[in-house]
């Protein structure tokens, strides 16, 4: 089993769903983990349940100052940073005629601006480690556009461009950049009520396992893009 004792990880948007599963998997593997979301209360409650190797912080990833503080507090608490998982994301769906500028900004700010803010803040600490990762949670919507998806598609197409450019910028500094593109995952993202009917979907724990698999990759090798989808979705 992968051992991450002594490693330090930040997972954005980790109060529930995929981010929470990733944070928990990293914590179970022995890492020190910073859990975060817009709600500091939810992040703190989760970290309190996990004990001293977890720290819960409020961080709205649309705010560059909050992203800077998130990194600073992680480094101050645990002595460095090895793993940044850019997971926070929202979906607001509607045609271009329907979407408001506020909705557009909310999606692009949460899903795309955040990547720049968090990576910009974290790169000095990551590159100081000699062997670090930035893992960005994209989506199959980053290559498959659909009507009503303009904002979400733009944010996730953008994530790929950002990740590919950053990967080439920092690979020689000992920072590997990967992005995972899930299809449907059983979280509150698509069913806020948690009303069920999700049995065919990928589970958040499966995405967390992919993150652990990435981290176990030999230092000489960089799996940069991972697509993952349900094996047996409902037939069209
Ligand atoms: N579920 C899917 O089918 C699916 C498929 C492909 C890709 N994805 C991607 O996977 C990622 C996680 O999705 P999920 O399904 O786990 O969603 P989720 O269950 O709705 O969880 C989203 C997380 O992001 C946080 N968040 C939202 N806005 C934020 C902000 N401005 N700043 C900081 N944190 C914020 C939320 O916490 P707070 O509300 O406390 O802020 C929550 O912890 C997203 O990037 C999403 O695009 C999901």
Describe this structure in words.
By secondary structure, the chain is α/β, with parallel strands linked by helices. It has a single domain, classed as NAD(P)-binding Rossmann-like Domain (Rossmann fold, 3-Layer(aba) Sandwich), CATH 3.40.50.720. It has helices spanning 17-28, 40-50, 64-78, 101-129, 150-170, 204-215; strands at residues 8-11, 32-37, 54-58, 83-86, 132-137, 175-182, 225-228. Strand 6, helix 6 (204-215) and strand 7 form a beta-alpha-beta unit. Helix 4 packs parallel to helix 5. The termini are far apart. 43% of the residues are buried. The mean pLDDT is 97. The chain binds NADP nicotinamide-adenine-dinucleotide phosphate. Residues 12-19, 37-39, 42, 59-62, 87-90, 110-111, 137, 139, 182, 184-185, 187-190 line the site of NADP nicotinamide-adenine-dinucleotide phosphate.
Work out the helicity level: 40-55%
The biggest sheet amounts to: 7 strands, parallel
Task: Name the CATH superfamily assignment.
Answer: NAD(P)-binding Rossmann-like Domain
Rg from Cα: 17 Å
- Tally the beta strands: 7
- Could you say what the CATH architecture is? 3-Layer(aba) Sandwich
Classified by CATH, the class is Alpha Beta
Under CATH, the topology is which? Rossmann fold
Strand and helix order = EHEHEHEHEHEHE
**Alpha-beta classification:** alpha/beta
Percentage of β-strand residues: 15-25%
Give the spatial strand order of the biggest sheet: 3-2-1-4-5-6-7
Distance N to C terminus: 39 Å
Count up the helices.
6
The set of bound ligands, ions and cofactors reads:
NADP nicotinamide-adenine-dinucleotide phosphate
Query: What is the subunit organization of this protein?
Result: single chain
């Amino acid at each position: 089993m992968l051992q991450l004792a002594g490693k330090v990880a930040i997972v954005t948007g980790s109060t529930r769903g995929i981010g929470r599963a990733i944070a928990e998997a990293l914590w179970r593997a022995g890492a020190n983990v910073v859990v975060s979301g817009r709600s500091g209360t939810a992040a703190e409650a989760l970290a309190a349940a996990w004990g001293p190797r977890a720290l819960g912080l409020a961080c709205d990833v649309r705010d560059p100052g909050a992203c800077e503080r998130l990194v600073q507090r992680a480094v101050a608490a645990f002595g460095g940073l090895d793993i940044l998982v850019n997971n926070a994301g929202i979906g607001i769906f509607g045609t271009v005629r329907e979407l408001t500028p506020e909705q557009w900004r909310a999606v692009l700010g949460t899903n795309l601006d955040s990547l720049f803010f968090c990576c910009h803040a974290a790169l000095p600490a990551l590159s100081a480690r000699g062997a670090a990762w930035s893992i960005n949670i994209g989506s199959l919507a980053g290559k498959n556009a659909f009507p009503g998806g303009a904002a979400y598609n733009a944010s996730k197409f953008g994530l790929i461009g950002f990740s590919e450019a950053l990967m080439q910028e920092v690979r020689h500094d000992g920072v590997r950049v990967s992005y995972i593109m899930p299809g449907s995952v059983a979280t509150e993202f698509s069913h806020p009520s948690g009303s069920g009917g999700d049995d065919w979907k990928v589970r958040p724990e499966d995405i967390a396992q992919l993150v652990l698999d990435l981290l176990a990759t030999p230092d000489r090798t960089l799996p940069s893009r991972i697509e993952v989808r349900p094996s047996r979705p409902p037939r069209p």
